[in-house]
Amino acid sequence: MRRTLRAELCTEKHAVRLWSATDIDLIPTAEEPLHSFLARLGPDVLDEGVTVDALFSQLKSKKCFRKKAATLMLDQRSFAGLGNYLRSEILFIAGIHPDDRPCDLSEEKLHTWAQCIKQVTVQAYETGGVTVPKDIAAAGKRRGEPRRTWRHYAFCRNERPCLQCSTLIVRLRYGGRRLDHCPNCQMAHR
């Protein structure tokens, strides 16, 4: 499928591009909470005012507590702004199996998950989508490896060795979307 640029907003330092959108609404900031879609969104993980404690509370909320991690992480009503690669990476780094639900996990594990939601998303934003530590990325670059082989722990690394334990990364499908995980580092907690 070929993407088409639908809208582009540019300043001297920044650009925002919207690709392949069917609908675009431009609304005043003051009216955002009243917009029918925006009013239903969960916390924006990149918002500096959204804390790890707020994300922890969201994981424990009634609407999230019994959902599978794989489903929950892409539900924009639960966490706004997370996409497919962040789902794989957050769950990997937190050590959460895609079928785990918040209700299956200890408070400590939920807190780790909340921390990873925040930290991995911020790191990815600041590094152009790289979710591994700088030393892993630098080593991959030095070896001349393609970016796709060193930028993530799990996402798009199916059938390659896990960077932490060497078990082969496995690709699963949830709702037609791919999710890559390590069956050793992300054992189910049920």
Structural commentary:
The protein is globular. The chain has a single domain, classed as Helicase, Ruva Protein, domain 3, CATH 1.10.8.50. Helix 1 (52-60) crosses helix 4 (107-126) and helix 3 (84-94) packs across helix 4. It has six helices and four strands; from the N terminus they run ββααααααββ. The termini are far apart. It has 190 residues and is α+β, with helices and mostly antiparallel strands. The chain has helices at residues 52-60, 69-72, 84-94, 107-126, 134-142, 147-150, and strands at residues 5-10, 15-19, 170-174, 177-181. Strand 1 (5-10) and strand 2 (15-19) form a beta hairpin. The protein has a two-stranded antiparallel ribbon with strand order 1-2. A two-stranded antiparallel sheet has the order 3-4.
Radius of gyration: 18 Å
Total domain units = 1
Number of strand elements: 4
Please give the CATH class.
Answer: Mainly Alpha
Structural class: alpha+beta
Q: Fraction of residues in helices?
A: 25-40%
CATH fold assignment: Helicase, Ruva Protein, domain 3
Poorly predicted tracts of residues: none
Largest sheet: 2 strands, antiparallel
Overall outline: globular
Order of helices and strands: EEHHHHHHEE
Strand content: 5-15%
Going by CATH, the architecture would be: Orthogonal Bundle
The tally of helices reads 6
Distance N terminus to C terminus?
38 Å
**Residue-averaged pLDDT:** 94
Strand order across the largest sheet: 1-2
